[in-house]
Hints:
homodimer; 574 residues; alpha/beta; FAD/NAD(P)-binding domain; five-stranded parallel β-sheet; 17 helices; globular
Amino acid sequence: MKIVVVGSVAAGTSAAAKARRNTEDAQITIYERDTDISYSGCGLPYYLGGEVESIDDLTPRDAAWFAQRYGVDVRTGHEVTGVDPYARTVRVRELATGETFTDTYDELVLATGVSPVVPPVPGVDRPGVFTLRNPRDARGVHAWLTDRDVTRVVVVGAGYIGLETAEQLVGRGLDVTVVEAQEHAMPRMDGDMSARVDAELRAHGVELLTRTRLVRVEGAGTPGSPGAPGEADPSGGVSAVVVQDADGERTLPADLVLVAVGVRPNLDLPRAAGATVGPTGAVAVDRQGRTDVPHVWAVGDVAESFDVITGEPTWVPLGSTANKMGRVAGDALTGGSLVHRGILGTSIVRVFDQAVAQTGLTEDRARAAGHDVVVVHNIKPDRPPYLGGREMLIKAVADRATGRLLGAQAIGPSGVDKRIDVLATAITYGATVDDLFHLDLAYAPTYATTKDPVHYTGMALDNAVRGSAPLLSPAELDRRRAAGEKIQVVDVRSAKDRAKGFVEGSVHIPLAELRARAGELDPTLPTVTYCNKGVTGNAGQNVLRNLGFTDVANLSGGNKNYQQFARTPHPPAG
Amino acid sequence: MKIVVVGSVAAGTSAAAKARRNTEDAQITIYERDTDISYSGCGLPYYLGGEVESIDDLTPRDAAWFAQRYGVDVRTGHEVTGVDPYARTVRVRELATGETFTDTYDELVLATGVSPVVPPVPGVDRPGVFTLRNPRDARGVHAWLTDRDVTRVVVVGAGYIGLETAEQLVGRGLDVTVVEAQEHAMPRMDGDMSARVDAELRAHGVELLTRTRLVRVEGAGTPGSPGAPGEADPSGGVSAVVVQDADGERTLPADLVLVAVGVRPNLDLPRAAGATVGPTGAVAVDRQGRTDVPHVWAVGDVAESFDVITGEPTWVPLGSTANKMGRVAGDALTGGSLVHRGILGTSIVRVFDQAVAQTGLTEDRARAAGHDVVVVHNIKPDRPPYLGGREMLIKAVADRATGRLLGAQAIGPSGVDKRIDVLATAITYGATVDDLFHLDLAYAPTYATTKDPVHYTGMALDNAVRGSAPLLSPAELDRRRAAGEKIQVVDVRSAKDRAKGFVEGSVHIPLAELRARAGELDPTLPTVTYCNKGVTGNAGQNVLRNLGFTDVANLSGGNKNYQQFARTPHPPAG
């Protein structure tokens, strides 16, 4: 059997290695257009910031290593330019010589990956405008930073790569502006979560411009260009970026521009083979990686995955998923039975002092998928405060009818990755919200609280799903009050806490007095209790419900979450 | 309804709080013998070491706070001395006055907890010998450390409290000796894992004496007693501990002795009520906390739990479990339907630079339960080494017949808590080993490797369970060779790695040469491949199997795990 793999980063090498582990009988060839193989693309921002000392640390394996270990012929600098699925041949060009040749295959694995999207605006092709997808890109940015007097950087796009790079460049002492077309950084998250990412960026000196689009890149000869301030830059670098928001155009001086607005699948070869592109815009494959063209497989970022929860095709290009898809296909094409089980879109990014992570459906996507959702905002420390515990916010979403946990998003300085991974695991097994409290997680005060944030999240969701302790999000409260509904909002905190700020229009009855003073409230009105973060609010809610109040919700995440929401631009209610 | 709770640490307060959340109609009284309520017992060692500044940080809630918040009458300094389950009364003594009275109940919740076991040896009642269970104990140790010229401490018992306290006292600059009767520190773990805990203790200057028993405590008047070296100590402190191992008795100078050999349930009151004690020695309860005496409940450390995997009664007294049991009973006794779902014995402890954690069955317990086990030792970094990732060792155990994951143990400086919690969650849902690879965990190089250690663990176990890549542990290799079996051991590492040490009697054929030189080996002999940690050994194993070798195992955890095993005292094989 002869296996030809196109592409050698995560999925391509995983497929080849797994195939070889299964059999010594196959002849396996990998064609790679580039020079680097199996590199860590996710580590590139950290090379720019100096956390990773050498680019070699991100490209630990070369073709010779891979060939020796796996008996796989890795041809770097070879571009596959065509495929004939009837003859089962590929057309290959050796880039160094320009020579082309035809190779045959029994099975063809397309791991052609993605390319950065570059908006087609004037000046975007100038030297000094970069994308950051592979080591070559990183070497280019690094050289530009090293060789020139760069002080101002504009990053276009506030997704993973944009934010990681922004963080690293701030760490180098540069002035960094991030431009994002959407309402917030990290637009894959719900707005009430990504607003916190905005805040973290700004707190660390990043100028974040949201709802702002790149118009053009200006360069050589304009004032402020790098290398020769005030004079023409003979090398033709950039000098400024022009962006546009609702107020009009604005010019941002820049010595370097990183375009990180997203990626798109490299579909030329799959299309040449006749493979169908799915609804997500990536190649449609079955659960082992087969396209609809016989003997042609697609794996990694170029191919679709599917959502564990909805079962629908989805496309979230990540190295972890690419590895899985490659391994599954490598197994299947050598007779194995591995099957890809889908993804939750689990992801994490460090943004300065915060870990920002998510898994499963956001509130927005859950609503869009037709779920009647229950949402909780849970603010808890990762460890006891007496051992330095720091608060994280977990927003979790469940289906009201079934109690199924649909997704979670979390932001915090410590322990966020653990909670998201536990929740992702639970969701994988179809967890209902009542399951979470029962998980026997590892407790010691050096690592967790006696009841873990995961437990609290489950308890709050469970109470809300069962209707014994309904939650109301700040957005819902805002919307209902703006629509004219009369809602009795009760602040059950101490006078000291209330003095620091409160929900407008709320009455103040501390929890300790609530049993005695409940007569001041109207038990027939919709009532919302709240405290700082939610726990005491829930206690007040229980008191009122047990005293016969019929409609009492607790404000999700308390005043802390409400104030954050209130400070966030959001569409006017009603 | 009138609810009486006895005990106010984790389970008792949880039961009372949950009952109140469910209803305003119950009268709830908690009797507490001590003065502190709802304290963090697990934080006490960190107060001794100074990581926790004030003991008040560990006792944030007092009776007044609890009474106000929950409308619960908390009577500290009140000991319940008797119970009449027919009359439904308890006999209570107010300790300050000595007055006794009778109280009635509709439901009685016994959360009497545990007491430290103190070996009945001479001198163990001297001043300067402490246990560490509650804030009073901690205040006593703290005062002794502060007021006296303590330089030498003997800790008896190398479980959680003993090791945490040893770590903290080393941090204070004290000479610490830990005495443990079992073969290793952390005897709840398998010996090959707890041996690494031994090594960590010794690396940080702790004198660890295993297979060693406390014989007596010597004191006042002997040389070296604290406060007055060489003279009689008028306060009657300790001066030395006499211990015994296989070689005889030995005297260890000591200015302070901490006895932390374990705890036992406080059964006086449950027995007085007529409640049955289960096979674990704790009170037998149903899955909501009912004893077999009507209207008498037992929750927390005094009561049995049951094992999620085996379904059998088990007793692992931990605050996290006590909280769960209390909440479940509090719900059930006010008409709720919460049910305790059992435990995995998940636990974690920080021992200097290592997190030491476990969940589910150890190899020993799995074998004892009759499982044909598959075991993997997986050595992986928590993050990519280029971002400072450091290696952890995960030992995981599965059932060969069903592929069910039975348990995991892990040791490492970073990220151990996350992996154990993910594995605990998977085990809870009945995970089989093939599930783990598919988990969509949060990947970014700042938090994890592209394939997480959890994925690798699952892949290795899956290959072993399916027979495609069997694993052999160092102990098994040792045993089989010692029994005279002829096993071909093949070192597939580079010459450079081999020069650093190898498995005795192994032949050396680097992986790169293995395909060509396989003829030097006998394909009919049992064969074991190995490398440094296991990955390349698995590659060599695949090569040989694919070349027709019939019986090829990979050495679990490679040379690194083997050498650690070889350095560990273990019973002679055969």
